[in-house]
Amino acid sequence: MHKLTDDDSYRTRARIIAALARTKPLSGKQRFIAYFNHAVQFNHAEDHLDIGHRKLDIFRYYNLDIFVTFAIVIAALVFLLINTALNIFKLLRTIRGPTSLKKTD
Length: 105
What we know:
Keywords: Membrane, Transmembrane, Transmembrane helix. By secondary structure, the chain is mainly alpha-helical.
């Protein structure tokens, strides 16, 4: 915290940013009014001010198509890994031969 209050570079940078904000061509209020007037004037024109995501279905809006695809790929990889490991163990068991535990009395 002392670094923020004692270091002059932060104060200088804050002054530069404040000067940039003060000399901006339009204030926030003026920019809002300009965009609002533009939207009212061209209300018959479709889609240039419309958000594209508004028309997406739920499946695509929440990226469920991507998540389902990744889940299927991951499940397939896990299945292949487990299947390969089981086949390797079976192969090793057949190569080594049956091992039986005999009780010695």
